[in-house]
Amino acid sequence: MPLSDTAIRVVKASAKTQKLFDGGGLFLQVNPAGSKWWRLKYRFGGKEKLLSLGTYPKVTLKEAREKRDIAKRLIDSGVDPSDTRKAEKLAGVDSNSNSFEVIAREWLTKIMASMSPGHIERITCRFVNDVYPWLGKRPITEITPPEILEVIRRIESRTAYTAHRALGECSRVFRYAISTGRATNDPTQSLRGALAPVREEHFTAITDPKEVGGLMRAIWGYSGHFVVACALRLAPLFFVRPGELRQAKWADINFDTAEWRFRTSKTKTEHIVPLARQAIEILRALQPLTGGGEYLFPGGRTPTRPMSENGILAALRRMGIGKEEMTGHGFRAMARTILDEVLGFRPDFIEHQLAHAVRDPLGRAYNRTAHLEERRRMMQAWADYLDSLRAGETGAAATAMPVATA
DSSP per residue over 95-126, as a string? Predict the structure, then answer.
């Protein structure tokens, strides 16, 4: 039988916890101390879960049933009410809120598994600094295109690129709200063309062999922290994405096979970096210092986390290499250009090593081991070539390296 207010008022505490069930998973938990808590038992993702809905009499029977029905609608739309509760606490609002911030935080929780921690952190910072102060507490169904545009314009006054990113992220929050039954339209769609287009800019990189030689000498002459020095020396040898380098883990390094295997940050696919002799020497020198931890390059203040995103970039700047010359991402462009134009390796070998999607004539993506032996030879030739440039051999001696055959 469903509960009644009378039954709830007259129930007395006993030596054991009592559970009075109302229906639909809702029950009142009466503790031996006399407190009465509303609970909702439900299943999500194949697991049984429990959600607190407040205490009686602060939350009446009618209000508890309303909260149960709201939670059930969330479950039916594929949302875990526990995630919504966490988002509400982070947003500092009352339960059952349909605010933009609650739904945005809930959406961020959902996409965490498919995005790198750095990317999630950047989106969160944009919302916290530029969106939540103006739209966070507003019911998502009441937000209008002019309100959104006013928020995005503030960002655009600083950087057009970030404004476009923020607008796209707001759109994803609205679409998530629609898919979970808490909104019916995406007002950002009315703002197409409202922002000035962003001129695409490529990461700056040094690609002239003579200048690369100077860069390599500067890197090897770096006198800062040894961990940062090792990261600097490995960056051109590996030419992976900066986030992948700084988050490299010892568990993924195999000295027996001379390989570093990990999941790429962009496509979440398995990738293999063959380790040239020079890379192994640097790793062996680093291992006694950081090999006892998780990361090759742990943070200076918190060793349980990887080095900061600006670690290599800041080191380049301290060496006098400006942002108009080289970025952490620029090592990829440097390798791509010289491996192709100077050392003559096949473009598909290079693209595979850059962890780009490379397809066969039938349109199927090659797997991570494609051309692995050829890539091993390429990575060793690349390391040898960088050594020759560092030694000042910019002429024939520097370019007379083993090249891939067609």
Answer: TT--BHHHHHHHHHHHHGGGS-HHHHHHHHHH
